[in-house]
């Protein structure tokens, strides 16, 4: 985590410095790049500070240990259903919804209804069938 903290802090300082240089080069006439670079720098520093505070609270991480094994950083990523078709239906609902926003609002309700069906299906897929508890 120490390397990540340094990367975000140094990138933030770099972007803020480049934002100021960009402002002077364009004589502050182009008011998109200058604030954008400053904000990218500020956000990068915010992430670095968050990681630093988390590192202080959590303590030494396996990635900071030079002799750590890969299994030391093993985490529980949750439970995922084998052979579930509902994530594909959720993706299709998102695709139809965003297509409706881009091409015509009359398509959006079809994606929204499909999204509700997909969310109900993925939420209750373990209540019936072969995976019921």
What does this structure look like?
- It contains 4 helices and no strands.
- It is mainly alpha-helical and 133 residues long.
- The chain has 2 domains: 1-64; 83-122.
- Helix 1 runs antiparallel to helix 2 (33-58) and helix 3 (86-103) runs antiparallel to helix 4 (108-123).
- It is flat.
- It starts with a helix and ends in a 10-residue tail after the last helix.
Could you outline the blueprint of secondary structure elements for this entry?
Layout: H1 2-25, H2 33-58, H3 86-103, H4 108-123
Helix pairs in contact: 1-2, 3-4
Number of helices, where a helix is a run of at least 4 consecutive DSSP H or I residues: 4
Structural class: mainly alpha
Q: What letter string, H or E per element, gives the SSE order?
A: HHHH
Strand fraction: under 5%
**Total number of domains:** 2
Major sheet characteristics? none
The rough form would be described as flat
Which percent range fits the helix content? 55-70%
How many individual β-strands? 0
End-to-end gap: 39 Å
List unreliable stretches of 5+ residues: none
Q: What's the rounded overall pLDDT mean?
A: 89
Q: Roughly how many Å is the radius of gyration?
A: 23 Å
Protein name: Cytochrome c oxidase polypeptide 4
Membrane topology: Multi-pass membrane protein
Catalytic activity: 4 Fe(II)-[cytochrome c] + O2 + 8 H(+)(in) = 4 Fe(III)-[cytochrome c] + 2 H2O + 4 H(+)(out)
GO molecular function, one term: cytochrome-c oxidase activity
List keywords for this structure.
membrane, 4 helices, Cytochrome c oxidase polypeptide 4, transmembrane, translocase, cytochrome-c oxidase activity, mainly alpha, 133 residues, 2 domains
């Amino acid at each position: 985590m120490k390397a990540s903290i340094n990367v975000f802090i140094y990138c933030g300082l770099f972007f803020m410095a480049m934002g100021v240089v960009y402002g002077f080069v364009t004589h502050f006439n182009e008011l998109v790049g200058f604030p954008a670079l400053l904000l990218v720098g500020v956000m990068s520093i915010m992430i670095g500070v968050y990681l630093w505070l988390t590192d202080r609270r959590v303590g030494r991480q396996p990635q900071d240990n030079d002799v750590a094994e890969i299994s030391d950083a093993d985490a529980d990523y949750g439970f995922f259903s084998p052979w579930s078709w509902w994530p594909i239906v959720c993706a299709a609902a998102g695709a139809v919804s965003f297509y409706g926003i881009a091409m015509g609002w009359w398509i959006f309700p079809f994606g929204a209804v499909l999204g509700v069906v997909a969310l109900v299906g993925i939420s209750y897929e373990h209540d019936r069938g072969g995976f019921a508890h």
